[in-house]
Design brief:
Elements: E1 20-26, E2 35-41, E3 48-55, E4 62-68, E5 79-86, E6 89-100, E7 106-113, H1 118-123, E8 128-132, E9 138-140, H2 146-157, E10 188-195, E11 201-206, E12 212-218, E13 223-229, E14 234-237, E15 243-247, E16 255-258
Parallel strand pairs: 10-16
Antiparallel strand pairs: 1-2, 2-3, 3-4, 4-7, 5-6, 5-8, 6-7, 8-9, 10-13, 11-12, 11-14, 14-15
Length: about 260
């Protein structure tokens, strides 16, 4: 079940003063799954630019994703494509449906499984941008809400015992290295890096300026446990300094297999 606590409204292209990420979790009926939501807007008002509401199901958890935007002449219920991207990732093209509520709020809604690539895009990078086809794009600063975003993804995914894991490894790929940087040190996450390749690998923490700092060398078949944080990217190279992968720890992810 899902229950939205905030009446969502579109704030226009320019973010209103006081906008922030607001995570809500409560149990309306004892013994039933909690109601979990995440909004970007002005707390306790109807000004919201983006909203997630968790749905628990036996086949796996999903989330209703609301993108608040102008919709032009598109009627309620009509199909629309939402283009979504974040720093170094995307764009994703997501089919959705236009909503036009009696309150005057408009945008697009789609229900996505928690295993959908959208949630990896949402969690990684310093910002999220979305654009409804034919409308002006909107940018959201995801950095300040990194902990709340990761918490929503983790807890919503865990609601259903049969739910698939929510992007457990979060590999970003070497092409994202130039844009990768640590965002915040608010949410700790210990990770054990296991070298499953046939050669030694070097681990670098990418700092807040995007600069790599060597932390460890892991020989084939061995592992190292590191106290890291959500939003802190790691660069994995060979002994010659050639990038093999870039990854960011996810909430609840306590291990990462370094591939060949």
């Amino acid at each position: 079940m899902s229950l939205c606590l905030v009446v969502a409204g579109w704030a226009g292209n320019a973010a209103a003063q006081g906008m922030e990420w607001v995570y809500t979790s409560w149990t309306p009926v004892p013994g039933e799954p909690p109601s979990i939501s995440l909004d970007y807007g002005v707390a306790y008002t109807d000004i919201v630019q983006f909203s997630l509401n968790c749905n628990a199901g036996s086949a796996g958890s999903t989330a209703d994703v609301d993108f608040f935007s102008n919709t032009g002449a598109m009627p309620h219920g009509s199909p629309v494509t939402v283009s979504v991207a974040s720093t170094g990732q995307g764009p994703l093209q997501i089919p959705a449906q236009v909503f036009a509520w009696e309150t005057g709020h408009t945008g697009a809604r789609v229900e996505l499984p928690m295993s959908h690539p959208f949630f990896a895009v949402l969690q990684n990078g310093s910002g999220l941008s979305f654009q409804l086809a034919g409308q002006q794009g909107i940018a959201l600063p995801t950095g300040p809400g990194r902990g709340d975003i990761s918490r929503f993804v983790s807890e919503c995914s865990a609601l259903s015992p049969n739910a698939p894991p929510a992007n457990p490894a979060a590999p970003l790929g070497c092409d994202t290295y130039g844009n990768a940087r640590s965002m915040s040190g608010d949410v700790p996450q210990q990770v054990t890096f296991s070298n499953t390749s046939n050669a030694a690998r070097v681990l670098f923490w990418i700092d807040y300026e995007g600069q790599p700092t060597q932390i460890a060398i892991v020989e084939p078949g061995l592992w190292v446990t590191i106290d890291s944080y959500l939003t802190h990217p790691w660069l994995i190279t060979d002994m010659d300094g050639v990038c093999q992968d870039v990854m960011v720890p996810q909430a609840g992810q306590d291990s990462y297999d370094i591939p060949n």
